[in-house]
């Protein structure tokens, strides 16, 4: 998974068939975004389920997936939705659904079909939101998104490229945190269990991590300044991320299909 | 701008950071012409790095400081132009390779600077290809910079500097974070740049043995940041050697050896700068006192074993990092683990100190198996000092930091009273020269003080074995030497010391025994003098002879000298 989230990772094996990779990142965000907002407010099962399936089909058709990623999408994601549906159901107030079918009973606890359906609706919404986000997430790189933001939305490049440089901090800090935890363990701070001791332990990591982070950020800033970062209002763009007709077509088609799904889902009783 | 201007001119430069009271540097003037390489030397804290930052205007534009005097680059005063303009005249390479990379591929990284200058795409690519070919990274242009070695990343940083197409190149400790192989690679590139004569180069470097061949002139600052000596390399380093040594400035190993030989009554016409010169001078002398053969400096009279490792194999994430390592470290020895990057040095010392639990039954420290003992019992047997001392600080004052180890132990077994802790901490404060800082916050100490405190915290519980992971990483020779002298003192008072260190001459001076690691295997373990003089062995491990050993191998007319590796073994007084 870390490879899929690496903002710099190049995707080997991307061919013409994998059309999602050839779209402007902004199009891949603009298509699903209105429906992601809409999904926050729906309460039924059919709508999120429809979008979940739609997103998965779209990704499978248009993205370059390794067998592991495909497994995670088609088996892992539904499994997570199933588990979540039961867990959410446990939180549901049983008195509101005690007129529905009783599925099982453990001691005094009764699990009703109604409760499971409420849990399933919530789990499907989360699954659908994730799947819609993955349409862009799995098929674009961090630099491409930054370039599109700078080139099409005219976000100042000083902000965009600084954010990109900050991505590089993540592995550095992970390494640093590993060192700090190891050092603290050796010094014998582990002497305690439970959430309070755990919290204190984490607070102890903050100071050295921050000191290291500030120093590192300062050095990176000096190195970037030394290479004329911010010299002009614009900088040379070697990679153009154009917004083409096909990007407009993608957004329009996505919105049409999405609208159709909403209408169709409303027909389901 | 008049054509007679030198590429770079400093005139009475003084810089005071806003939170400081004194100027560092404090009145420095010199010129650098195109095609010249100028080396800036000075003791720690004399303002060398600040001077470097002033050359492209980062001081005073980006860092809050007051600057008097002036710097001109190609006739432009740095105070009159923004850093982005000056970056077209002065390119910089800094110490930390990781802190200079901002993009995701080697090619994008080199293009970053020219892109900022808004050059046409064709020119960006042309400059980048040229720069990458110059440092030998063109074939790797599509790689993520993360996969390059330290030396590779630093060569990339040099390519990025070259792509700015500036007449001036400034390098601030470019090899301080690198292993010997990385240092060699970087200096191969810098040698080409110096030979081409296209740049005025200012180099700040403490590893004189690596840099000496390409330096034309040397500028030396004293401890107060004032200009002490300046002139051609040989004139300054050989001519003013005594003066520089007194200032606390490091000299080439061959020159240090020459100074010692002179004190020992051996007549040398001039002081040598390189191992070859030293060897030639000694060969030209008709008779030299016979030197005793290397003897291990072991104080291990009892024959006790402090740490025993038997068939230690460590596998992490399906990769075998250590392969069947067995060795016995005698009580009271000073052992250094050497090897190229990725040889398994850190993994070995972490396993034998129990920082990462080794497989059961593979390591014994005294009568303890770190695999099955808890952190507190372990702390009484072995202390571990991490590469970055800040990582291990937990408390808000130096006193509490030292007391921490004792208080943690008290929680499990009733033992020390507050008064006893007070006494033991006071002893430790005095031993490491930290008495006046007992109430200071550990993070506010200087680099050297932090390092001493971290050693103190590792020893406070009375551990007879001290393990340090690359304690000299990123430090200059003066700090490194200071630390090793401290460890040497602990060693003399009976502590078993185990370190990982890259600087083989330092190893030669201080260690009694050396373990050589290569590809996760222990290649050799034995007396320091025997191992550091074995060229074939070191080369198999991807290392090369330390400078003095290299010189002495060339001393063919005095066989008893050809195996010497330590300056301390040279005759000190007339025999």
Automatic annotation (TrEMBL), chain A:
CDD domains: EcfT (cd16914). The keyword Hydrolase does not apply. It is a multi-pass membrane protein. GO terms for cellular component: plasma membrane. Pfam families: CbiQ (PF02361). The chain crosses the membrane at residues 35-59, 71-91, 111-135, 248-268. Keywords: Membrane, Transmembrane, Transmembrane helix. Its main location: membrane. The keyword Membrane applies. It comes from the Bacteria. It is found in: Membrane. This is Energy-coupling factor transporter transmembrane protein EcfT.
From TrEMBL, chain B:
Pfam families: ABC_tran. Transmembrane segments: none annotated. One of its GO terms (molecular function) is ATP binding. This is ABC transporter ATP-binding protein. InterPro entries: AAA+_ATPase, ABC_transporter-like_ATP-bd, ABC_transporter-like_CS, ABC_transpr_CbiO/EcfA_su, ECF_ABC_transporter_ATP-bd, P-loop_NTPase. It comes from Mycetocola zhadangensis. The keyword NAD does not apply. Keywords: ATP-binding, Nucleotide-binding, Transport. Belongs to the ABC transporter superfamily. PROSITE patterns: ABC_TRANSPORTER_1, ABC_TRANSPORTER_2. SUPFAM superfamilies: P-loop containing nucleoside triphosphate hydrolases.
């Amino acid at each position: 998974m870390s490879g899929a989230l690496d903002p710099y990772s190049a995707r080997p094996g991307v061919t013409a068939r994998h059309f999602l990779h050839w779209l402007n990142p902004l199009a891949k965000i603009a298509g699903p975004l209105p429906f992601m907002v809409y999904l926050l407010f729906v309460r039924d099962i059919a709508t999120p389920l429809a979008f979940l399936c739609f997103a998965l089909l779209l990704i499978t058709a248009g993205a370059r997936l390794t067998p592991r990623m495909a497994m995670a999408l088609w088996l892992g994601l539904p499994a997570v939705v199933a588990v979540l549906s039961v867990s959410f159901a446990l939180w549901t107030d049983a008195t509101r659904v005690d007129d529905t079918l009783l599925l099982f009973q453990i001691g005094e606890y009764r699990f009703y079909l109604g409760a499971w359906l409420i849990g399933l609706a919530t789990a499907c919404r989360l699954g659908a939101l994730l799947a819609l986000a993955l349409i862009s997430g799995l098929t674009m790189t961090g630099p491409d998104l930054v370039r599109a933001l700078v080139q099409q939305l005219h976000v100042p490049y000083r902000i965009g490229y600084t954010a990109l440089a900050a991505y590089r901090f993540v592995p550095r800090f992970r390494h640093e945190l590993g060192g700090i935890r190891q050092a603290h363990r050796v010094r014998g701070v582990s002497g305690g269990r439970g959430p309070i001791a755990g919290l204190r332990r984490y607070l102890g990591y903050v100071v050295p991590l921050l000191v290291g982070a500030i120093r590192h950020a300062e050095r990176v800033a000096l190195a970037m300044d030394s290479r004329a970062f911010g010299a002009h209002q614009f900088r040379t763009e070697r990679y153009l991320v154009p917004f083409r007709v096909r990007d407009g077509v993608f957004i329009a088609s996505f919105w049409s299909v999405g609208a159709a799904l909403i209408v169709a889902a409303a027909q389901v009783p | 701008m008049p054509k007679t201007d030198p590429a770079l001119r400093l005139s009475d430069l003084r810089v005071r950071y806003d939170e400081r009271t004194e100027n560092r540097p404090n009145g420095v003037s010199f010129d650098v012409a195109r095609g010249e390489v100028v080396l800036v030397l000075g003791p720690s804290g004399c303002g060398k790095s600040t001077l470097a930052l002033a050359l492209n205007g980062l001081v005073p534009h980006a860092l809050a400081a007051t600057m008097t005097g002036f710097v001109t680059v190609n006739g432009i005063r740095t105070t009159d132009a923004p850093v982005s303009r000056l970056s077209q005249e002065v390119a910089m390479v800094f110490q930390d390779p990781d802190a200079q990379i901002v993009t995701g591929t080697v090619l994008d990284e080199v293009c970053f600077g020219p892109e900022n200058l808004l050059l046409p795409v064709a020119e960006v690519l042309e400059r980048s290809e040229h720069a990458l070919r110059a440092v030998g990274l063109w074939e790797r242009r599509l790689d993520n910079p993360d996969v390059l070695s330290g030396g590779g990343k630093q060569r990339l940083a040099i390519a990025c500097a070259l792509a700015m197409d500036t007449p001036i190149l400034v390098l601030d400790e470019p090899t301080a974070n690198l292993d010997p192989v990385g240092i060699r690679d970087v200096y191969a590139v810098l040698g080409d740049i110096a030979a081409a004569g296209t740049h005025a180069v200012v180099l700040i470097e403490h590893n004189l043995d690596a840099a000496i061949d390409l330096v034309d002139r040397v500028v030396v600052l004293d401890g107060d940041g004032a200009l002490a000596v300046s002139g051609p390399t040989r004139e300054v380093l050989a001519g003013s050697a005594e003066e520089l040594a007194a200032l606390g400035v490091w000299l080439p190993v061959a020159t240090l050896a020459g100074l010692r030989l002179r004190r020992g009554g051996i007549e040398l016409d001039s002081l040598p700068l390189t191992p070859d010169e030293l060897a030639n001078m000694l060969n030209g002398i008709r008779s030299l006192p016979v030197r005793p053969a290397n003897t291990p400096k072991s104080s291990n009279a009892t024959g006790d074993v402090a740490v025993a490792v038997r068939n230690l194999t460590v596998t992490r994430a399906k990769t075998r990092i250590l392969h069947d390592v067995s060795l016995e470290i005698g009580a009271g020895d000073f052992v250094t683990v050497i090897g190229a990057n990725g040889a398994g040095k850190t993994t070995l010392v972490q396993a034998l100190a129990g920082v990462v639990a080794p497989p059961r039954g593979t390591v014994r420290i005294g009568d303890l198996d770190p695999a099955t003992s808890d952190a507190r019992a372990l702390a009484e047997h072995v202390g571990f000092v991490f590469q970055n001392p800040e990582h291990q600080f937990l408390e808000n004052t130096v006193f509490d930091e030292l007391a921490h180890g004792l208080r943690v132990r008290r929680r499990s077994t009733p033992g020390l009273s507050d008064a006893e802790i007070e006494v033991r901490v006071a002893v430790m404060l005095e031993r490491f020269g930290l008495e006046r800082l007992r109430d200071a916050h550990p993070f506010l100490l200087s680099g050297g003080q932090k390092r001493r405190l971290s050693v103190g915290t590792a020893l406070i519980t009375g551990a007879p074995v001290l393990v340090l992971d690359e304690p000299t990483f990123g430090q200059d020779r003066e700090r490194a030497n200071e630390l090793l002298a401290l460890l040497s003192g602990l060693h003399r008072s009976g502590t078993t010391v185990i370190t990982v260190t890259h600087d083989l001459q330092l190893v030669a001076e201080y260690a009694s025994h050396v373990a050589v690691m290569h590809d996760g295997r222990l290649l050799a373990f034995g007396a320091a003098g025997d191992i550091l003089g074995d060229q074939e062995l070191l080369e198999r491990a991807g290392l090369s002879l330390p400078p003095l050993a290299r010189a002495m191998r060339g001393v063919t007319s005095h066989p008893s000298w050809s195996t010497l590796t330590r300056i301390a073994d040279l005759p000190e007084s007339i025999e």
